[in-house]
Design brief:
The structure holds two protein chains of two kinds. Chain A is α/β, with parallel strands linked by helices. Helices cover 42% and strands 8% of the residues of chain A. In chain A, strands 1-5-4-2-3 form a five-stranded parallel beta sheet. The longest helix of chain A is centred in the first third of the chain and has 27 residues, at 2-28. Mean pLDDT of chain A is 78; it is low at 183-192. Chain B is built from eight helices and five strands. Chain B has a five-stranded parallel beta sheet. The model of chain B is unreliable at 179-190 (pLDDT under 50). The chains are: A alpha/beta, B alpha/beta.
C-alpha cells in the first residue's frame, strides 16, 4: 500500500511538470506580432522611394479612384469626423495593430491593393508606414504632405510651413556666408561728401512803382 | 519504478537544455511591435530647437546631437556640435557604439524631422535609450536661431526674452553679427535759400 502511494505521487508530479511545460510552450507560441525584417533590412527599405508619395501624385490617385488603393487616415477619430478624404478609412495610430484593423489590412494586401496612409503631417503617417513595412506588408505608401494640402483646406496653417516638413535642405547659404564673413573686418567705404554749391539768388529789388509826386 | 526515475531524469535534462536555449532569445533587447507602436504615438520624444540650443550653448556633456543627413549636406551646414551618422550607416558597428552609450541623451536631427524620426524608430526598436528627435530639424533650427526674427512691439516680454536668447546663441556659435558698414551719409541737400523778393510797395504817394 505504501509503495503504491509513493508511485502515485511520482506519476502525479511527472504529469504536473509535463502539464506546466506544455501550457508554457503553448502560451509562448501564441500568435503574436513579429517583425518580418531585421532593423538593417528595414533601414534599407527606407530608401525605397515608392513608399513616399508627393501631394500631386496622391491627389491624382485619389481622383482616379480605380480601386487599386485603400486610403487609411491615421489621425484620431475626432479629427477624422471633422473631415477626411473621401472613401478614407480611419485607423488611428494606436489602433493600427488591433485585431480588427490588422485583419482588414491583410485583406487589402491579399486583394493586391495598395495601402495609402496619410496623417495631419507627413510625420504622423511616417511611423505607421515603417511599422507596417517591418511587419511584412509590401504595398504600403504614405502621402508626404499635410492633410490640409490633400483635402484642399484653404488657410491651412500647417501647409504654409511644409518647407519645414519635407526633407529638403533650406539653409540660406547667402546668410551663412554673411555669418562667416562677419569675422573678418569689413572694409569701410566712406564717400567724400560732395561740396554743394550754394546758389543764392539775390533778390531783385523791383523799383518801386509809382510813388513820388 | 526505475523507468519512472529515468523519465524524470530525462525530463530534467530536457528542461536544462531548454533553459540553455531560452536566454538566447531574450538576449535580443529588441522591443516588440506593439510597444514600438505605442512609443511612436507618444510625442514626448520631440525636443524643441530652443531646448537643444540651450544645452548646446551650455556645452552639456550628456547631449549627443546626431545628424542623420548625407555627409555632403552635413558639410554644407550643420548645427555646431553635431555628429554626422548618415541614415544608411545608422546600424554599422561604429554607429551602434555611439548610439548605444547609455549615459548620453541622443538627439537625432535631419533637415526636417522625418528622416530623424525614422532613425529614432529603428533605434528604439533595437532597444537604445535614451533617444530623442529634434523637432523641425536643422531647417527649423536655422530659421529660429540663426535667422531669429525680432518680435513685434505688441508681443509679450517673454517673446522678447526668447528672441534675445536666440540672438545671443547665434552670436555664440557664429560670432558677432555683421557690423553694418557705415554707409556714408548722403550730404544733405541744402536747399538754396531764396529770398522772397521784396514786393514792391504798390502805390504810395501822398
Amino acid at each position: 500500500m505504501k509503495e503504491l502511494n509513493k508511485t502515485n505521487r511520482l506519476t502525479i508530479v511527472v504529469v504536473a511538470i509535463v502539464l506546466v511545460f506544455v501550457t508554457g510552450i503553448l502560451t509562448l507560441q501564441k500568435p503574436d506580432l513579429k517583425y518580418s525584417f531585421t532593423p538593417a533590412q528595414s533601414l534599407e527599405m527606407l530608401g525605397d522611394s515608392s513608399g513616399y508619395l508627393t501631394s500631386g501624385k496622391a491627389l491624382a490617385i485619389i481622383a482616379a479612384n480605380d480601386g487599386k488603393t485603400v486610403l487609411i487616415d491615421v489621425r484620431n477619430s475626432i479629427a477624422f469626423d471633422r473631415g477626411h478624404v473621401k472613401d478614407a478609412r480611419n485607423i488611428p495610430v494606436r489602433e493600427l495593430f488591433s485585431k480588427q484593423s490588422l485583419s482588414f489590412l491583410k485583406e487589402v494586401e491579399k486583394g493586391q491593393q495598395t495601402i495609402l496612409l496619410y496623417g495631419e503631417t507627413p510625420r504622423q503617417a511616417n511611423g505607421p508606414w515603417i511599422m507596417l513595412r517591418q511587419l511584412g506588408f509590401k504595398n504600403v505608401a504614405f502621402i508626404n504632405s499635410t492633410f490640409g494640402q490633400i483635402s484642399g483646406i484653404e488657410n491651412d496653417t500647417i501647409a504654409k510651413k511644409t518647407s519645414l516638413l519635407n526633407e529638403v535642405p533650406l539653409i540660406d547659404t547667402a546668410a551663412l556666408k554673411k555669418l562667416s564673413a562677419s569675422s573678418s573686418p569689413s572694409e569701410k567705404t566712406v564717400e567724400k561728401p560732395v561740396p554743394v554749391k550754394k546758389t543764392v539768388k539775390p533778390a531783385k529789388v523791383e523799383p518801386a512803382s509809382g510813388g513820388g509826386c | 519504478m526505475n523507468k519512472r526515475y529515468l523519465i524524470l531524469a530525462l525530463l530534467s535534462v530536457a528542461i536544462g537544455a531548454g533553459m540553455l536555449l531560452m536566454p538566447e532569445n531574450s538576449r535580443v533587447k529588441e522591443i516588440n511591435p506593439d510597444q514600438l507602436l505605442n512609443a511612436i504615438d507618444d510625442p514626448s520624444r520631440f525636443l524643441s530647437t530652443d531646448l537643444i540650443t540651450d544645452r548646446l550653448v551650455k556645452k552639456d556633456p550628456s547631449l549627443l546631437l546626431i545628424d542623420v543627413r548625407p555627409a555632403a549636406q552635413f558639410k554644407t551646414f550643420a548645427i555646431p556640435g553635431a555628429v554626422n551618422i548618415p541614415l544608411d550607416s545608422l546600424l554599422t558597428e561604429s554607429s551602434i557604439e555611439m548610439i548605444g552609450k547609455k549615459e548620453l541623451d541622443k538627439v537625432f536631427c535631419s533637415n526636417s524631422d522625418l528622416m530623424s524620426d525614422q532613425a529614432w524608430i529603428l533605434s528604439k526598436r533595437s532597444g537604445f535609450e535614451p533617444i530623442f528627435v529634434l523637432e523641425g530639424g536643422v531647417n527649423k533650427w536655422f530659421n529660429d536661431i540663426v535667422e531669429a526674427k525680432e518680435p513685434a512691439a505688441f508681443e509679450s516680454s517673454e517673446m522678447l526674452a526668447l528672441y534675445q536668447f536666440r540672438k545671443a546663441a547665434s552670436q555664440h556659435f557664429f560670432g558677432s553679427p555683421e557690423v553694418k558698414s557705415e554707409v556714408a551719409v548722403a550730404p544733405k541737400k541744402t536747399t538754396p535759400v531764396q529770398k522772397k523778393p521784396v514786393e514792391a510797395s504798390t502805390g504810395g504817394g501822398c
